[in-house]
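hiii so um. not sure if this is the right channel but i have a protein structure encoded as tokens and i wanna go backwards to a sequence. like what aa goes where. can anyone help
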């Protein structure tokens, strides 16, 4: 199958492209600038908010499936620069949806738990979004662009949450940031009052690959199987990695003066994805075991 993977230099996109190549698919990776992620697939430098550039790339490759993890993901940066967030999270998605429809490709859009306000989690796929803050609002607008512009029945929205993995891609992720800080014996403040469903990037990539290649239409929550607050996540991580738990400082979301609001309880329900897919969302314990193995392997190869 011919599959266009955007954001292929990013955390999810880089892993997704490699999973699909390993499954024998013909992958075209797309990100801005040059290819920085490992993997044997073709690559195009592409600014997704440029409609003509998107059209050219899509027409030339003629994908059967387009998977779009590309996004402006820094929540506070989106709050400070809403126009850039709009271009990356809405205009880019609209461009892809229009191009997908024209060439008859299925579009799988990657979205976020932040489309929910966090007042009444955990959330199922049928719950009504109420995004707060620029990142959340633009991601929700991206979902709406898919629903309006992609061919009916030929789109999927996959919402994920707190994605982490080792090695990190271009930007640090929650898990890698935590490991680096604890390894350096720095104290870290972690929220006791924000409940999320942490998701190992490799597991997310495998679930997205199955959703995309089977072209399962509709909305799916594609995340880890365990809802947990960030402080408890840190404690469990310390247990698996052998880090000092006293470095973790419990804090509350309201204590930090963050530019953008965050949902308090945005955990996602996973019944639908468990029912639909062969690849299953991993428990937090299993995620942390795999995260630790990847970290040990990375340290081994860095030392070699
Ligand atoms: N990471 C999380 O905790 C998390 C949680 C919930 C949902 N999600 C969703 O999961 C998806 C993947 O996230 P991720 O962690 O893999 O993000 P990431 O590591 O930040 O990667 C995003 C990629 O998108 C590219 N990109 C951004 N704007 C672009 C544009 N205008 N044109 C072309 N490429 C552009 C970035 O390129 P540059 O490097 O050039 O900027 C980067 O390669 C996103 O849709 C995000 O909203 C992530």
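sure thing!! here u go:
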């Amino acid at each position: 199958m011919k599959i266009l993977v955007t954001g292929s230099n990013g955390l999810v996109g880089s892993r997704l492209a490699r999973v699909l190549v390993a499954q024998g698919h013909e992958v075209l990776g797309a990100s801005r600038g040059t290819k920085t992620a490992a993997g044997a697939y073709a690559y195009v430098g592409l600014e997704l908010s440029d409609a003509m550039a998107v059209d050219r790339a899509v027409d030339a490759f003629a994908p059967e499936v387009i998977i779009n993890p590309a996004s402006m993901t820094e929540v506070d940066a989106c709050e400070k620069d809403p126009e850039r967030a709009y271009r990356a999270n809405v205009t880019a998605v609209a461009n892809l949806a229009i191009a997908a429809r024209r060439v008859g490709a299925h579009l799988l859009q990657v979205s976020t738990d932040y489309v929910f306000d966090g007042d009444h989690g955990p959330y199922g796929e049928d719950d009504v979004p109420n995004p707060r803050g620029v990142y959340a609002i633009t991601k929700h607008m991206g979902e709406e662009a898919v629903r309006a512009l992609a061919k009916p029945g030929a789109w999927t929205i996959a919402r994920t949450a707190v994605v982490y993995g080792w090695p990190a891609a271009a930007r640090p992720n929650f898990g890698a940031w935590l490991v680096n800080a604890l390894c350096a014996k720095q104290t870290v403040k972690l929220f006791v009052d924000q409940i999320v469903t942490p998701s190992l990037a490799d597991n997310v990539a495998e679930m997205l690959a199955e959703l995309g290649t089977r072209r399962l239409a509709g909305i799916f929550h594609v995340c880890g199987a365990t809802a947990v607050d960030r402080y408890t996540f840190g404690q469990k991580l310390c247990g698996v990695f052998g880090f000092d738990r006293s470095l973790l400082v419990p804090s509350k979301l309201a204590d930090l003066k963050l530019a953008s609001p965050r949902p308090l309880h945005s955990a996602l329900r996973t019944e639908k994805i468990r029912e639909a897919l062969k690849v299953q969302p991993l428990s937090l314990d299993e995620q942390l075991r795999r995260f630790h193995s990847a970290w040990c392997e990375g340290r081994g190869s860095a030392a070699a």
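oh and The chain has a mean pLDDT of 96.
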